[in-house]
Structure formats: C-alpha cells, structure tokens
Amino acid sequence: MKWLAIAAVIGTFTACSSSGGGSPTAPSAPPANIAGQFSTTITAASSCSGNVPFPILGFFTTITQTGGTLQLELLGHAPGAPMGNVSGTVSGQTVTFASFPLTEAMGRGATLVASGTGSVATGGLKITGTLNGTFQTPAGLTCNASNHQFEMVKLCSQPTSTGTALLPCAA
Question: Which residue has the higher pLDDT, 133 or 101?
Fold first, then answer.
C-alpha cells in the first residue's frame, strides 16, 4: 500500500510538470471576414515622384477567403483592363502579403513587385497598409521603397436613380 501511495504522488508530479515546458499561449483572434468587392488604390512612395510619372493606380478587387487564406483578383482601371492575382493571409485584423506581384502591365504599363502588411478597420469596410517593393515603368524607370501605400474600400450594391451600383459600404 505504501508503494502505491508513492507511485500516485510521483504520477501526479509528472502529470503536472509535463505540460510542454512552455508557458500557455493565448488563443489567436479569429481572422477578420473581408471577402467581397473592394475599390483598391496603390500609391507609390513620395520619394518615387521623379521616377514614376503616374504614382496612383486604381483597381477593382475581389477578395475570396477561406479561413485565414486570401486570394485577391485585381482588375485595373485602365484600357485593356489588366489583371493581377495576389495571395495573402489574414490573422485577427492584420492582412499580410508575402508577395504582391503585379507583373502584367498594370495601368499605363507599370509593374509592381512588393510585399506588404495592412490593418483591417472594424467591420472590415477598409484595409490600409504599406507595400515594400519596386515600381517599374515601361521606359525602364524604377523606384524601390518600403512605404508605398495601399487602401482598399469595401463596396456594396446600393440603389441609384438608374438601378444599382457598387459603392462604398455605409458604416
């Protein structure tokens, strides 16, 4: 009986001390739900003004989301409607793009290869952030900066006098 009591005590100490050796981790926040249509603006860093003659590019963007995984389809606001696809992730209210390649001719023939992070506003109606990478024009001018900006504004179908239109969602 004495040996049984000692074995029970040793088993209790072993069970209490074998929790993985580290401190407990807080559960991560669920990813913000940002699926839908957005109006996206990418603005080159101000330091690029001499090398990028058209520093603001606009896109219609569709985001599809599965859990924390994102797929963006960007359609340029330019003749020929250039397109680009970008993958990313969302964790809590933070969006991350390990690679943000828009290598097809975007508006006016420019390309952008970058990575970036952004913050999702409460309600998912706006995403803002920075891109770190290189703009290049068809003439070969380039600008590499870590502070290109992007802004995505969620669009909702809203009635107009002539039918319906995708307009910025009301808060």
Answer: 133
